[in-house]
Amino acid sequence: MRRLVTGPRSLVSSALMTALATLVVMAGLAVAPTAASAAPDAATTKAGFTELSEVPASLAKGNGAALADQGIASVYGCRYALITPSVVDFICVVTSGRIQLWMNCSNFSRYLGPIWGPGTYSIRGTCPFLSTVVSVGANEFA
Question: How many Å apart are CA 54 and CA 93, to the nearest integer?
């Protein structure tokens, strides 16, 4: 079978398409490290929990004293956001009782945070280098 020199199925066309595909892949690899550098450096960050800055008072709403009087261990609300695959941020409002946050990582380790009483907290959980957050939760104490 004879291949043409010009046209959509020619040798020149095939070579140009291969060169273009190679350039696209190389450009993608050159851009990827700069986008990833915006994330926190997990290699130098200590694994576990870290308390962050003060939380605005507007998030600390509600009074759980009435529920605590009825025998409920603790009244709290937590929101969390996955910042990177290995970093999760929590904002917790504890109105009565005490809580302890926990985090499971993909390297089969479990991290427990300190026990917090009533108040508003901003907490960051970090898994070790090359592991990711698998699950999070809170233990309740009276």
Answer: 12
10 Å CB burial of residue 84 (0-12, 13-18, 19+) is middle
Return the structure tokens found at 63. 């009074």
Query: 103: exposed, middle or buried (C-beta count within 10 Å: 0-12, 13-18, 19+)?
Result: buried
> Among residues 131, 118, 140, 34, which one has the least CA distance to residue 88?
131
Both structure tokens of 134: 């698998």
Note the pLDDT tens digit of each residue in 15-26: 766 765 665 555
In angstroms, the CA 91 to CA 123 distance is: 6
Per-residue HEC secondary structure of 57-106 comes to HHHCCCCCHHHHHCCCCCEEEEEEEEEECCEEEEEEEEEECEEEEEEEEC
pLDDT, tens digit (0-9, with 9 covering 90-100), for 62-90: 444 555 556 667 889 999 899 999 999 99
Helix (H, G, I), strand (E, B) or coil at 41: coil
